[in-house]
Amino acid sequence: AYIKARPVAGDPALGGAFLAQTHRFVYESPEQADLAERIQAMRHRLEMERGGGGSQGAHVKLGSGGIVDIEFLAQYLQLRHGRSHPDLRTPGTLEALRGLATEGLLPPEDAAVLEESYRFLRRVENRLRIVADLSVNTLPAAPAKLEKLAKRMGYRPQGDDSARERFQKDYAAHTGRVRAIYNRVFGTKDAGRLES
Question: Are 100 and 42 in contact (CB under 8 A)?
Fold first, then answer.
């Protein structure tokens, strides 16, 4: 959580001092040998408890290949390399991904896929919230509601595919690519799911 810390109001000097102290705590602490395992265990627990989907549909934020996969991956690499690469000390996920690619710590093609998927998933999340008028992160299970969401995302029927089917294909492609990169970074064998 301290990785994303940033001053938003008040005395700029005090905010800067707080950030400097936070960065020392986060980035200059001795490296933890079990960092990857701890992050992966936390991610697995979140996915099992809240992101499984079930009768509701896929969870955009916490589900497999969702927003949290991208955020956890970026934050893990920031924690691991932020001490020797101060430019990685940024609260923004997209900025962190770009920095990781620039520093050669994440293949540029992986960073591009993660950035594209992050933007796509955030758009989905925003459309869900607009439609429901409250904080919603789960895709609707009902085909009619999913069709409505797909159309709000700009999808239109094409050939034999409905807007819903085209959206579902893109959603599955994005989350599948994200999970594959996540598992590569964390060294898991199965690119489709987290190892327990």
Answer: no
Nearest to 139 by CA among 113, 167, 161, 166: 167
CATH architecture group of domain 31-186: Up-down Bundle (1.20)
Element (H, E) at 65: none
In the chain, where are the structural domains located? 31-186
75, HSE (Cβ side, Cα atoms, 13 Å): 20
Token couple for 125: 């999340």
pLDDT in tens, 20-57: 556 554 566 656 778 888 888 889 888 888 766 544 56
* Residue 45 burial (CB count, 10 A): 12
Q: What angle do CA 150, 152, 154 make, to 5 degrees?
A: 75
Please tell me the distance from the alpha carbon of residue 48 to that of residue 52, in angstroms, as a whole number. Answer: 6
